[in-house]
Amino acid sequence: MTETKWPELPWDQVIDRVSPLVFRVYAGQSAGTAFIISCAPAKTSGRYSAILATALHVLTDAVQTGDNVTLVSADKSRVFDSSIDEMRIQELGSAVHDTAMILLLSDRPIVQQDQLLPMLPYEFMLPRGVEVGWLGFPGLVEPELCFFHGHISGYSSDPPMYLVDGVAIHGVSGCPAFDNRAHFIGLVSAYVPNVIDESTTLPGMSAIMPTNALRMFMQDFMKATVL
To answer: Which one is the CATH code of 21-116: 1.25.40.10, 2.60.220.30, 3.65.10.10, 2.40.10.10?
Structure first.
């Protein structure tokens, strides 16, 4: 019997794999979550490099004002600041796609390549009913890294994104969403509340931007190898 390359795992084991790649983002007056999707060891340049994905709206204030961007790992052992480490922000697509990358260069190690998660092919979309999870830093318990989960409920076509029956509390914007095989499937972009009237708001749905744009940019423009 052939062993599955990416077997299903208990959620606690998936969380253990994902957590080292998740960073709290402080950008001007905004705060959110980012996630390492690619990295490279120091070579002739003597510097380490990594690419982090996040929601574009997390970085908008810092881009407009020139304020520092600070990245803090979930265990607080790694801190990178744009006043010391080189960071470049790359918007992917138009603002409606709400996706951006942070290109980080540092004299200090960032993450090991064998820690990276596989990314779903950009032509593939998960079917309705699949359980997914996400890890981020909700502002109400900052800086605690919290796990959330739900199911793919449906899709939005403009722009293409997953609609998930779960919450996305302020602060988790840009955090990674993944399946129980530890595949990176997308970024949490927003929470769409069910507003009945001015005094009544019911539970809504989370919006998750798929990895399509990120994978296409890395493969076609950066010529990077994606797991």
So the answer is: 2.40.10.10
